[in-house]
Amino acid sequence: LIYLGWKMWISPVSTMSSGDNLQDVNNEIASFIQGFMISASNPKVILFYVAFLPTFMDLTVLSAADIVLASFLTFVALLLG
Fold first, then answer.
1. Does residue 79 contact residue 36 with C-beta atoms inside 8 Å?
2. Where are the domains of the chain?
3. What pTM was estimated for this model as a whole?
């Protein structure tokens, strides 16, 4: 790890030209989707939510709005992570 860190530290920094903006936006969107899918499909994360949510929410009385709110909060938490 020290070797990899040193190589990253001394490697030259590439500069972007003005024509790469659209490609950069597409790469950022693709990176976001990839990161979200990795987090959302991780078995440890799935097991965490399956074990965690029933202890704080009564799943039998949730309305559609509650499910949307919980999904949104989960999305935001994964986005921040």
1. yes
2. 31-81
3. 0.45
